[in-house]
Amino acid sequence: MTGKDARKGLWIAFFVLPGLAVVFTIILLPLFMSLFNSLFSWNQLLRGDFVGLGNFRKVFATEPYRTRFFNAIGNNLTWFLVTMLVQNSLGLFFGYLLSRRVPGHEFFKRVIFIPVLFSIVAVGFLWGLYLRPNGLFNGFLKLLGAGSLQRAWLGDENLATFSIIAVNIWRWVGFPSLVFLAAIDNVPVECLEAAYLDGAKEGTIFRRIILPLIVPSITVITVLTIIGSLNVFEQIFTMTGLDGSPNFSTDTIGTLFYRTAFGSVDSGNPEIGVGSAIGVVIYALTFGASILSIATLNRKEVEL
Amino acid sequence: MRFKRSALVLLLALLALGTLVAQTTTLNFWTWRPEDTDAYNKLIAVFEKANPGIDVVLTAQKNTEYNTILSAALAGGSGPDVFQSRAYGGLETFAQSGYMEPLEKWVPELKAFDKAPLRGATSIKDGKVYGVPFASQTLFIYYNKAIYKQLGLSVPETWDQFLANLQAMKKAGVLPLANGGKDGWTLEVLQGAICPNFYGANDFFDAVMTGKANFQDPRYVGAIAKLKELTPFMPDLFMGVSYTDMQSSFINELAGHFIGGSFEAGYFSAQNPKLEYDVFPAPVAKKGDKPFVSVYADGNFSMNAGSKNKDAAAKFLKFLAGKTTGDFFIKDLKQVSAVPGADTSTSPYIQKVLSLQKNNTPYIMLVGFRYQQPTGSVLLQAALQGFMAGKFDAAEVGRQVQEGLATWHAPFQKK
């Protein structure tokens, strides 16, 4: 029996080790490296003395780092709230419509999903062009006779973050739509039929039967939204740049981290220690938020 | 038999090729100027011809990612032998990390260089020179000569004359100013071009460097406030206008002025050879005042301290510090070369820039306040975006800059 077990173990190792090696070198190792780096003071690109939690104290309690950090976190929160409210509600709505087999649903299913396949950088670049003051979007508004609504979408402090979020929703809404569609399609037909026979209205069925049964999908989408909102970077980088321009209104912990750790050409030098500390905070937040949301949402799940 | 002989010939040929390859030293050379790749390759060809056995391989990285890629490569031990390096605070990052070779003993030509460009290649910590300065940049105002002629305008000297010219263009339906505010650094450039004549140029610079004045000084706040007078002449929704939008409207002759740096000229001419433009220094407050222009060292060529081909790299750097390179910068790149004695006769434009440079002042944040975080540039760019968008006034710009710099600029701390 030992021989057989050993062989089995070897086979398992054979299949698992390559994956583990990749995860270790490109995920775990950098993670611990940044934790390690965050505990030292840095003279430009050289590691200096051990400073314990000094870099973390800078991020949370010393000006100007503190203002920048909480401003960035605030924007991440905006990303989460708007994405959750608008994108995921839209996704649920589209998923529901598609599941009711509205006319042309096969066509719409594909159309909604196409932008998900686009490269995030290409989307950011193109929408950056569309949202210029004399770009497509403002031209379209003028065509509709709504010229007074024209704005500097990416240059206005009050609008820039929302403009980027809107573009991201356009790109990504197909994903929750399809997840919800699949979930709703999986709701047992008997349940729905029974409800119809009992005279339940469409709204009631959605609220009382469909919604409780798709909680696992809502959990998944929520967790992904939290993680996505904490890690948002490329969209901002391609549309307004690393500096959180204008006036830090689009800064997130992702751009703040990049700028702090690696420096920004036109404005600043790298601070690797503080940057690593921000990186560790991002990791801790992502990890914590995922655990918390899975734990709380699991309780709402209904088993048939 | 015949097979054996041909195999022998092949083997000999391979051996010969092998020794040839072994004799060649390959120098990796990095720049942040993908747009100048063709021009640089021409220059490299001249060097390679004069130095057989050295093969220079040029790699151009995207400007905005250059520092990241370079620092990662140097830290990982795979960096280029010779590379473009930033001036001032950007030099300090690499010099103090030990990635740059001090060049005094390798490149004696540096002794002949002017002090102003050398300042950008010298570490403020140890006073050693870590780069061969390649160009200086000057900030001023470009204007479209054809539009000026058509509207019968003359080059302004005072601020009021300048505003009158802008007004005349606006009336004629021409966009007076190409400048926008989406990219914060273009606002810092705007400040660098316009404000010195209002804050008192070198006197004020020396005063803030030594802590005798600060950025809440009425001179500086008043100078910043002047920028607001330009907003009626900027494009509609100018806060959404990016650097590339600015360039394209001036290149396509849609805008009458472009407030920017001497580094634009090469690109302007390459994109639209028919574009007739000239430059003038930012206008002064009252007639008779001498206009100042902000000047800074653009960058340097540096040697990787860990390079395995230091002798070849030094040869290349000496070449980059020489007249051939100086002439090349002026003729092919339209840049104001830092090489002493470079030939300016081919370019009336460079001669003009050099004549403007006679009355120069340091580009304030880059030269003086980019050594630690938050840099003066970070603070000023963000604050100017808030100010130009109308969120707050010039006094608040001064306050934000002052408060941020006081966290590290020692002369601002003692009180």
Describe the structure.
The complex is a heterodimer of chains A (304) and B (415). Chain A is mainly α and 304 residues long. Chain A has 14 helices and two strands, in the order H-E-E-H-H-H-H-H-H-H-H-H-H-H-H-H. Chain A has helices spanning 2-37, 54-61, 65-99, 105-117, 120-130, 136-143, 160-172, 174-185, 189-197, 202-213, 215-231, 234-239, 253-262, 272-299; strands at 40-43, 46-50. In chain A, strands 1-2 form a two-stranded antiparallel ribbon. In chain A, helix 1 (2-37) crosses helix 14 (272-299). Chain A starts with a helix and ends in a 5-residue tail after the last helix. The mean pLDDT of chain A is 90. Chain B has two domains: 2-134 and 299-344, Periplasmic binding protein-like II (D-Maltodextrin-Binding Protein, domain 2); 137-295 and 361-413, Periplasmic binding protein-like II (D-Maltodextrin-Binding Protein, domain 2), CATH 3.40.190. Chain B has helices at residues 2-23, 37-50, 66-75, 89-96, 115-119, 145-150, 159-171, 184-194, 196-199, 201-210, 218-228, 243-251, 264-271, 310-320, 323-331, 348-357, 364-368, 376-388, 394-405, 410-413, and strands at 25-31, 54-60, 82-86, 132-144, 175-177, 255-261, 277-280, 293-303, 336-337, 360-362. The longest helix of chain B has 22 residues, at 2-23. The model of chain B has no long low-confidence stretch (mean pLDDT 91).
What is the makeup of the main sheet of chain A? 2 strands, antiparallel
**Overall residue-averaged pLDDT value of chain A:** 90
Assigned CATH class of the largest domain in chain B: Alpha Beta
Number of beta-strand segments of chain A: 2
Strand order, sheet with most strands of chain A = 1-2
**Count of domain modules of chain B:** 2
Q: How many DSSP H or I helices of chain B?
A: 20
The fourth-level CATH homologous superfamily of the largest domain in chain B is Periplasmic binding protein-like II
Task: Let me know the largest β-sheet of chain B.
Answer: 10 strands, mixed
Taken as a percent bin, the fraction of beta residues of chain A is: under 5%
Largest interface: A-B, 39 and 52 residues
Number of helices of chain A: 14
Instruction: Indicate the low-confidence ranges of chain B by residue numbers.
Output: none
- Low-pLDDT runs of chain A: none
Form type of chain B: globular
Q: Helix amount of chain B, in percent?
A: 40-55%
Taken together, the total number of domains of chain A comes to 2
Mind telling me the CATH superfamily name of the largest domain in chain A?
MetI-like
Oligomer: heterodimer
Radius of gyration based on Cα positions of chain A: 24 Å
CATH class of the largest domain in chain A: Mainly Alpha
